[in-house]
């Protein structure tokens, strides 16, 4: 499998040129939407968060898994990709040159199709749920997203030439049933937040509201008020912490001054030589400590910082179902939690969790099981991100209630990965212009849920 190389940091002037050429007529006419949305649901079997958008000509619905990481949208172009409007991005195109990690699919010996083109820019789509990646054409096609969420599904906003990568059918293995690709919400140049903002001329930011199973959530791109029923507007009441970029490349890719040719199926891909390193596009935040029931948990602060090699720190991941902690942090948090819960009868551990309780002996509140709060103490914030029982505890099939944190072992790349369960029914605003994360804490503590988001 190919390793995943980096995205280029491009100059503003070039990008402007690029996006003028793909700009839809409606935005040029000044009538573009101020926001677009993606509906979100949770797939029970995989615990992935899935979304749906429309693509191609004639338009068809496409189901894909949401990912806060990744470099751009990828979809399976092998199985059933039928469209009269796709176009390959030539190797010499500006958009291809902006992607330092791109290669050139020089020839494909087969009938032309979206996944088989000559002289086409290619990239390395990755299934971040399984860590499998491959090479695939970079192409453009029509993509449509709704402009409103509720009360009614609104009119669609269309991007005539949305740039994405062609994955192959085997790459969809491990994704939620029916999902044929992944939507990247990362800070990368061609991931959805930046590509949509450039197309529609709205702010480079999005809000993520992940639903628990059987509820509906949303991703809102652009400039929208965060209004929820009944009459709750969270636009002005989020708490902000800086979004951090892990500055260090961790995965070397490619060779200096050497052109590599390799073959995937019928396609010959050529990589022009230079040392590429994956530039992390994930969202990191400055966690400075953890409190349980108000008491500071003792831990090695060095692990909370990103070191010179890019190791350590705290990031958010929608592909990780639960929060994953470096072993000593996991142990310290588990011990502190157990101490506060000493009066509640324990239950045997249930994989992958260590600390479980008899579910019948734990009270229930509006914010979930009645357990100690976990506070994530963050850089430059007046208040912590308070995690209540609904986001910290996981009910198992056998009736146990477990602390939903997983041991990452002793040398994980990232010390703290905040997973999907901990983010559910929290409104999170990723503001890429101000480079900050806004968070609401658990919405039911504010009398609403992601399911009650309204727009339009
Ligand atoms: C690519 O070019 C080769 C050589 O000219 C040709 O045989 C092949 O059919 C072309 N492939 C596509 C997909 O157009
Ligand atoms: C804290 O963590 C760092 C990084 O893993 C390690 O080098 C150091 O020895 C640790 N310090 C203590 C006191 O355990």
UniProtKB/TrEMBL annotation:
Main location: secreted
Domain Peptidase A1: start-end pairs: 49-440
UniProt keyword Secreted present: yes
GO CC field: extracellular region
Superkingdom per UniProt: Eukaryota
GO terms, biological process: proteolysis
Keywords: Secreted, Signal
Location in or out of the cell: Secreted, Extracellular space
Gene Ontology molecular function: any one: aspartic-type endopeptidase activity
Pfam families found in the cross-reference section: TAXi_C, TAXi_N
InterPro entries: Aspartic_peptidase_A1, PEPTIDASE_A1, Peptidase_aspartic_dom_sf, TAXi_C, TAXi_N, Xylanase_inhibitor_I-like
Signal sequence residues: 1-27
Entry's family note: Belongs to the peptidase A1 family.
The protein's name: Peptidase A1 domain-containing protein
Record organism: Oryza punctata (Red rice)
């Amino acid at each position: 499998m190919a390793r995943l190389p980096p995205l280029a940091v491009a100059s503003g002037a070039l990008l402007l040129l690029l996006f003028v050429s793909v700009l839809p007529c409606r935005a040029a006419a000044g009538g573009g939407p101020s926001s677009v949305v993606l509906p979100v649901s949770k797939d029970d079997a995989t615990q992935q968060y899935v979304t749906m958008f429309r693509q191609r000509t004639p338009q068809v619905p496409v189901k894909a898994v949401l990912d806060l990481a990744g470099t751009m949208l990828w979809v399976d172009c092998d199985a059933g990709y039928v469209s009269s409007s796709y176009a390959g991005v030539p190797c010499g195109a500006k958009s291809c040159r902006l992607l330092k990690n791109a290669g050139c699919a020089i020839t494909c010996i087969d009938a032309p199709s979206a996944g088989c083109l000559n002289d086409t820019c290619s990239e390395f789509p990755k299934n971040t749920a399984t860590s499998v990646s491959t090479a695939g054409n970079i192409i453009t096609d029509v993509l449509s997203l709704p402009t409103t969420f509720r009360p009614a599904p609104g009119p669609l906003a269309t991007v005539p030439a949305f740039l994405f990568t062609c994955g192959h059918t085997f790459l969809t293995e491990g994704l939620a049933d029916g999902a044929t690709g992944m939507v990247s919400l990362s800070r990368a140049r061609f991931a959805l937040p930046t590509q949509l903002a450039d197309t529609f001329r709205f702010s480079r930011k999005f809000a993520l509201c992940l639903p628990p199973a059987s509820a509906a959530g949303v991703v809102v791109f652009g400039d929208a008020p965060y209004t929820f029923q009944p009459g709750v507007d969270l636009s002005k009441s989020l708490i902000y912490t800086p979004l951090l970029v892990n500055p260090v490349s961790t995965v070397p890719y490619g060779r200096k001054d050497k052109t590599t040719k390799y073959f995937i199926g019928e396609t010959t891909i050529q990589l022009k030589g230079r040392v590429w390193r994956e530039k992390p596009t994930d969202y990191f935040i400055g966690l400075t400590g953890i409190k349980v029931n108000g008491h500071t948990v003792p831990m090695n602060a060095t692990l909370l910082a990103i070191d010179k090699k890019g190791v350590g720190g705290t990031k958010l991941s929608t592909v990780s179902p639960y929060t994953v902690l470096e072993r000593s942090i996991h142990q310290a948090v588990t011990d502190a939690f157990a101490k506060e819960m000493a009066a509640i009868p324990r239950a045997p551990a249930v994989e992958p969790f260590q600390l479980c309780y008899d579910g019948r002996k734990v009270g229930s509140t509006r914010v979930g099981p009645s357990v100690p709060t976990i506070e994530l103490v963050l850089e430059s914030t007046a208040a912590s991100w308070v995690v209540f029982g609904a986001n910290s505890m996981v009910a198992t099939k056998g009736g146990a209630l477990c602390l939903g944190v997983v041991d990452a072992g002793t040398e994980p790349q990232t010390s703290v990965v905040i997973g999907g369960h901990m983010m559910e029914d929290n409104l999170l605003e990723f503001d890429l212009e101000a480079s900050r994360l806004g968070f609401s804490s658990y919405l039911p503590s504010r009398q609403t849920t992601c399911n009650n988001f309204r727009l339009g």
